[in-house]
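Table S7 (text form). Paired inputs.
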Amino acid sequence: MLVATDFSEVATHAIRYACELAAVYNFSIHLVHAQMVPVTFGDAPVPILPMGEMQQAADAQMQELVAGLRRNFPGLDISGECYLGEVIDVLTDCCTEMLPLLAVLGNSGSADEGAWLGSAVLNGVRRLPCPVLAVPENYAFRQIQTICLACDKEDLAGGLQIGSLLALQRKLNASLQLVTVREPGSEAINIEESELKRTLGSQLFSLQELEAADVSEAVHAAAREMNADWLAVVPHRYGFFTSLFHKSQTKAILHQSLLPVLALHAVEN
């Protein structure tokens, strides 16, 4: 797993969650810290601090962090590296090179706290080429038993690629429960005749179909009722993900989510 850190409390909590997850399921951890070079602008941009000095300070923090984690999680394969660049660009490069099972980011629910993780979560769930797990600030780890996948009518009709979710589900030995929300008065969905049912094949799952005007609230309520451990969503230009992560609603929705949100991709290789 890739785990992003800016050395903040939010990131530290997500790292601990990732390590507890890795310890139970025998995953490895690679910590990633990315930093842009701060500059002053005049006739010519000038770095505020020497790049070498910045890199040395970050490397020292990373070494201390990794050493502490290895003491707390003996036997766990933990590494870490610091990079220069924008965090999502760096994580994208790491995903391409390492092909991780998923990337983990801390979710404070706010982009106004100064640390880059606050503003990176939305960009990460939209842009990273691997599944992204956004871990709420105070969420305590528990063994993954139930994954709730939120989907809509278009997802059920076809085009929903969930290979990465099914791979994770098998590794975690978790159950899969689907929840879909339709507008009040609209036609019910026949899951048995859907393309998604054919995709899942013999995979065991349950489907809860809801009528509600507020999609995100209905989905979160359903996930709480089924005692889900993760809420999985699939980014696309319509339906549930648009409602859940629309730019004007992102901070509020991510802030209100009590569960880790697993973002998948609509198009997979």
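Next pair, protein 2 of 2.
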Amino acid sequence: MPLGGSTLSKYGSVIIATYKRAHLIKYALDALRKQVYQNFEVLVILCPSNDGTERLLSEYQKYLSIRVLLRKKPLPVTDAWNLGMANSRGDIIAFLDDDAVPEPQWMEQHIQTYNQLDVGGVAGDVIPAVLFNNTVIPSKSSSSEIVPKKPKLEIDPKPWNSPLPGLEEYSIYLTKSGHLHDRLVTTKKSVQKVISAVGANMSFSGKALKTFHFPSDWMPAYACEALLGWHLWRNGHSMIFNPDARVLHIEHGSTLGRSEGRQKALLYTEYQLFFYRLYNYERSLSVICKLLSAAAIAVSLPEISVLRGLFYGNLRGLIWLFSNKVGGSYNPLRRLPSSLYEKL
């Protein structure tokens, strides 16, 4: 059922990491200025680029409580999130992409969820959007980046897609192979339990985040939200998907300086490494399921970039796993070939 109607009292912190996005972040700031619920601060984690972002932020400080925190490099975004979490003052800490435009009730919906339900995190909906005559409008190509077009009612019967024990009733769950799977039953009728969110639109109680810190050796934002969701779950905090906490996500070209093939290779490499990151702490994970899952992906997506990501991710991950068992200090990211970053 839709949330609403309770007294709002919690103070919020909105964390936005940005780099070379002055032409986009202004739409996010405009939308924050128009929020129905205004009891929040905005922490902008900025990597200077001389594109006018600093001037823009100075202008919006007239309308919003903005604090700017500087960092030297744009990636990984998890370092920016760590900086934001360490400096936030809010009871609720929300994460918003610099190209995501929240609807007027966005902050209100996040806060209402915590007021009415005993949760540690809220995943909001993300709607693809385009810029047309300086106006952000929903894209006709898709209704949501989170809710599947054909909701799945049952768990995938393949053994490597079975949920970790305790997540059987979750609409988005972590599998024994370390992947996220979804079976969202509805799009707009009710909140649902999920194990992960999308970084463009998620929030957490400050209490739930007190014991969490992203590792410093993470590649660009792939699978990191799943680590955060797993941490909350294992520490007794549930996460809820609230479809009424919506943002419009502006579609535009990549600014990470990587080709589509390189992006895909990094994506599949980090997805594999995520399993090995978590394996020492989550004993319900299965190496056999991990390898079966990788083989199934290789058969269904026989692209060179995907195959390279699967190969390097699992090879370095297995070596990492063995190194951990014998007390070694192997770092898989330092051993990945430069071609993943430069040539793909």
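Residues 260-342 form one domain.
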